[in-house]
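Researcher: Checking consistency across runs. Here is HECT-type E3 ubiquitin transferase again:
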Amino acid sequence: MFQTFSGSTRRPRQVNLGGRKSHVFGSPGTGAGSQAALDRAQQERMQRQREREILSATRTLQRVWRGHSSRQKVSAWLRNEWDTVEKQSGTSLAEVATTPYASEAESLAQLQKILRFASIRSEDDLARIQHYGQRQIASVQTLGNPTREPWPLVYLRLQKMILTILERRTNAGKTDWSDYAPFMTILNLLVRQIPAETSQNAPRFYRTLSLVVASVFSTLVQHTGAATPPIEGRDPLKLIVETVVMPLKHVTSYTLNAYEAFGCIFMTIPRLSTETTSLSQHFRDLLAESINYKLLANSIATVFKSSGIFAYAELAGESARLRLLSSFIYFHRYAHNFHSPEAYTAHHDFVTVVSVLLNSLPNSIIEGLTTDTDRPADVTSAPPSGPINEFLQEQIMSLVNQESVGSLLSNSSRSAADTSEGDKVEEARQLSNYALALLRFFPRRGDEIRMWLYLGPTNTTSSHVSGNMPAIRFFWDATKQSSIFITIFRDSRAAIGLLKPKREGSSAGGFTSWEPPTSLTQQTPRTDDEWRVILVFLELYTFVLKVMDDEEFFSACPASSSAVSTSTVTRDNALPLAEVKDLTTFLKNLGFTLYFNASDITTSEDRAPNPTGLSFFRAQNNLEPEPEKKTEPSVGGVAGLSLDYVKGLVTGLLRMLYERDSRRKFLPPNHWLMTSRFDMTGFIPAVVEEEESRHKIEEEDAEDVELDGEEDIDDTPQLIGTSRTQHQRRLERIQRQQRKASRRRYLQAVAPRLEILQNMPFFIPFTTRVQIFREFVNLDMTKRRGSADPEMWRIRLMHRPDGTHQFERHHAKIRREHEFEDAFNQFYPLGQGLKEPIQITFVDQFDTAEAGIDGGGVTKEFLTSVTNRAFMPSDTVDLFVENDQHLLYPNPSAIEEHQEILKQLKVPERSPEARAYMQEILQRYEFLGRIIGKCLYEGILIDINFAPFFLRKWALTGGTGSAPKESGYRPTLNELRDLDEGLYQGLHQLKNYTGDVEDFSLNFTVTDNVVTDHTTKATRAITKELKPGGSNIPVTNQNRLVYISYMARHRLQNQPYLQTSAFLRGLSSMIQPSWLSMFNHSELQTLISGTSSSVDIEDLRRNTLYGGTYVIGDDGLEHPTVQLFWQVMHSFSDDERRAVLKFVTSTPRAPLLGFATLNPRFSIRDAGSDQERLPSTSTCVNLLKLPMYRDEKTLKEKLLYSAFSGAGFDLS
C-alpha cells in the first residue's frame, strides 16, 4: 500500500495561478494571466522610478549650477572690491607690497574677502594671497599683533589654505625654492600669530612641511648662505627651521601635541637622516638647538604607551622608524654636547622611546655594523642590510658604550628608602625593556652590554650612586616579586599559558621580511613587562657566573648585609644560596615545560601551497611563489625573542648552576630530579621508541638534502616550454623545506623525553640514563648488524659475495709498542665501519703471531693497548698532554709544533705536502676519537682520565637539541683551573685587583710558547691578538672582564679548536652527540672508566664465571682455592681491590650498573698447582688464571705481587 493513501479515491484538485496550462502538451499562456499582469506592473513601476531619478538629477544640476553661478558672481564682486581697495594703496600685484594696511579693520576685511573668493587653482588669486601676505607682514610690524576675535579663526582658515597650496605644489613636482618661498613666509607669519591653533592642527602642518623639505632641499644650496638671498630677504633654511619649531617654542596647552606630530612625522623625513653633508648637518643642528628634547621624549613616549607605535601612518615602514630613532638619538646627544653618554639612560622617556623603536626593528638592519667576537678573524661578516648610512650608523652605535649602558640604573630609585617596592618593580620593568632591546639589537656585542650592566657606572659617574645595590640584585628583586616567577615556581604546568603566543597565525598578505609582534601595536600588558625583567636577569646572571669563581659564588651573604668593604664587585653580585635554590626551582619548572610541553606552546604552521590547482598553470605563477607574511616570534609579547632563545637561555643557566652543584653540593639531594612528572615504569621503552622516530626523521631529512644537492635551480633563461618544469622544481624544493620543518616540529611534539634528556638530562637519574644509553647502542647494533651478537654478524657476512673482503677490512695485525700506528694505518679507512666486530692478531718484531685468547673477536686488549700507547708521553709532539692533576686534554700547541717541524724541513707552508702532513695529524685525532667511541660502544672500560673542560665539549658540542648554541660549550674562568692553575690564579688576581690594572701594561694579546726542539725543549713565543686590533687596546679596570673572557676562550676553545674538532668528529661517528648530551663531564668519565665508588666484592662474586677445575659442580660449592680468593679479596683495602681489578680487567673501576654489565664477564680458571707460580691474566677477556694455592697467606702474597708488578698477559 502507498504511504500517501488517505482513504479517499477521489483525485485532489489542482489549482494553477500562473496563467499557463500545466499540461505538457498544452500551448503556452497568451499573457492574459495573473503573472503577466504582475510583470507589466513591475515594469511600469521601474519606469516611473527612472523618471523620478532623472527629474531629481536635473533639479540637482540646476541647483548646483545656480549656486556655482551665484558664488562666481559674488566672488567676482568681492574680487573687484578687494582689487579696488588694494589699488588705493598704490601697489600692484606684480610688485612686492611693503605698504601696511591703514588699520586693523581694513586688514581683517581684506582677509575675510580673500578667504571667500580665492581659488587655489587660480594663479591670479595665488598672487593676491601673496600680495596680502606681504602687506600683512608690514602691518604687523606697524600695528602690532592682532589677537582679538575673529583673528585666530580667520588666520587658521588662511593657514589651511596655505598648507593646501604647498601640498599641491609638491604634488606637481615643483622643486625650486622660489615656488614655495612666498607662501612659506606667510605660513611663518601665521604660525607666529596662532601657535596654539597650529599645534591643534599639527599633524597636517608637519606633513605639509615634510613634503616641502623633501621637494626643495636639494635646491636650497644655491640660496642658503648667499650674500644677497633672492627671496624675501630670508635665508631659506632658517625660514624653514623657524617655521617648523615655532609651535614647539610657544608653550600652550597643545605644545605636547605639536612635539608628538613633529617627532612622529617630521623627524622621519629622509633629508633629516642623510649622510653628514654641510647642509644636512646645518639643518639638523638648527633643529636640535631650537627644541626641548625632554618635551620631545615625553610626547613620543606618551603616544607610544597610549596608542602604540603605529598611531601615525608615517611610522609604518621600517626605514621611517629607523630614521626617527637616529634623529631622536642625535637631538639627545646634541643637548648634552656629545660628551655625556651616561645621560642617555638618565631619562626614562628616552629609555622608553629607544627601547620601543629598537624592538620594532629587525636586528638584521644593523647586522653588519658590529664585530662578532666569537667569530675567527679571517671570517668576514655579511654586509649590512637595510637603509644604513654613516649618520644612521653613528647614532645607533652610540647607544652601545660603557657610560650609557653602565649608567642605566644609576638614576633609578633602587636604593631610595622612600620608594615603594611597587615603584621599584615598575622601574625595573622599564629599564629591562631597554636593556633587552640592546641585547636583541646588538647580539654580537651582547657580552660587552652584559658586562657594562654588571659593572654599573664608571668611576667618573658613580660617586653619587655608590649606595645602590648591584644590577643583578636589582633585577632579581623585581624577578622574584613578579607574578610569572611566583606562578611557575609553584606549578610548572602553569608556564604553558604564560608562554603561549597571543596571536596565532598570520595573514597571507604581501610579503614583508619582518613584522613586529602584537605587543608593539597594542598596549603592552603587565605580563610582557615581567617577562622582560626575568629575561634580563637571566642574561646578566649567566654572564656573572662565567666570571665568578666558586669561592665568590659560595661566599654570597644575605642582601641586607651587602655593604662589606672587602667584597669585590663579583661577590656583591652573588646571590644567597637559599635564593639560588628558589631560582633553580623556577628554571627547572620553566625549562621542563619549554621542552616537554613544546607542542602545547607552539602554534601550528600554515599549510604548504598546493601546486595541483588550475592556478598553477597561469602565466603569473611562473615566478617564485609568494612567501607568506612572516611574524617574528615572541615570548610573552617580547619582540624578536623566540622560544628557542628562551630555551637556550634557561638551558645554559641551568647547566652552569648544575655544574656548580656538582663540584660542591649546596642543594638538597634529588633537588634536580623531575621524575614526578614522568611515568618512570615505562620511561625507558618510551625513550627508545622516540629515538627510533628520530632516526626515521633524520633519514628523511638526509633524502631531502640529497635531492636539494642534486637539483640546483638554474635561473638563466630557459627554452620555450620549460618554465613550467622549472617552476615545478622550485615548488618541490619549497615543499621539501616545509616537510623538514614539519618533521622537526613533529619530533618536538612526539619526542619530549628525548628533548629533556638532550638538554636537561639531570632531571632523570644517572642510572636510568646509562640504561637508556645502552639501549640506544643495542638498537644501533641491531640496525647495523642485524643482532647485538658479533658471531651472528660474522655468520651473515660469510654468506655475502664480498664477505672475504669485509673480513680482511675488519682484521688487523698489531705490533707490540706500535699499537696506535698500526691501528691507524689499517683501521682509519673503515670510518663508521669500526662499529662492527674486528679481528686482531698481535705479532712480535719477527711478525710471529702471539698466543692468546681472542675473546670472540671484540679484542679488549687491542683497545686498551691502543689507548695506552696513544696517550703515552713521547719524545715528539704528543697528541694529548696532562695537567697538574694528570688529566688528559688535546695538546693545544700540537698544530703549531708540527708547523715548526715542517719549517725546519723547509717544506713550504701551503704546499700539497704540508697540507697532506697536517691533514694526517688531524686524522690521528679523529681516529683516536673513534677508538674512545668504540670503547663506549662496546661497553669496554679503559683506565683513561680526561680533563673536565675537555669532557664538557663532548656533551655540549655538535648536539642536535633545540638550543645548541646557548647550551653549547662556554669557556669560563673556573675551567682554566683544570688547564693551567698558574694562569687561573693570575687572572683571578687581575679580576680582583683594587688598583689600576693599566699598571701591568697588558693588552688584548696572548703569547703561546711553541716547542721547536723536543730534544732540548727549546721554545719560541708566538703573539696573537685576542680581538682585531688587540695589540692597541690596553687592559683597563673597565674591560678586564672582557680580557679574562677572551683569554679563557683562547686557551680553552680557540687554540685547541682543530684538534678538538677532529677528535669529536671521530667520536660522533661512533656515538651520537645527542647520546653524549645526556651526561655531564663527571658522568662521561664514569662511562669511560667506571665508577669511583668502592669495589663491591659480593657483587663481583655473584657475577663471576669459573673455568677448568674451578667450575662449580652439582653440589653448588666453590673450589677451596676460589673460597680462599674471596676471603683474601674481602680482607684487602679498597686500593688493593682496585689493583687486583685493574690487573684482571685493565681498569681499576667497576661498571656503573654493577659487574653484571662488565663485558666480557669477570672469569677465574685454574693455572696448575705450582705453589711458586704467580697469578696471570688475559685482560682481553677479563680472565684471572689463578694457581690452586693451598693457604691464604701464599695466595695473598702472590696476588698482591702480581697486581702491583703490572704483570699480565705476558705471563700466561
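Researcher: Does this match what you'd expect to see?
Model: One thing to look at in this run: The first helix runs from residue 34 to 88.
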